[in-house]
Amino acid sequence: MSARRLVFPIAFAASTLSIAPVSSSGQQALSFEEYRARVEPIFIAPRGGHGPGRSPCATCHVHSGTPLKLQPLQEGEDGRVFWSEEQSRMNFEVVSRLVVPGQPERSRLLQKALAVRAGGAPFHVGGKFFESQADPEWRIMADWVRAADISPDLRAAETTPPPLDFEFFQTCVQQIFLNKREGRMECVHCHGGGTRGFARTLPEGRAFWGLEESRRNFEVLRRYVEPGYPLSSRFLTHPLAPEAGGDAFHSGGRRWFSQDDPEWQMLAAWVRGEDTRCLSY
Question: What is the domain partition of the chain in residue ranges?
Answer without folding.
Answer: 3-157, 166-271
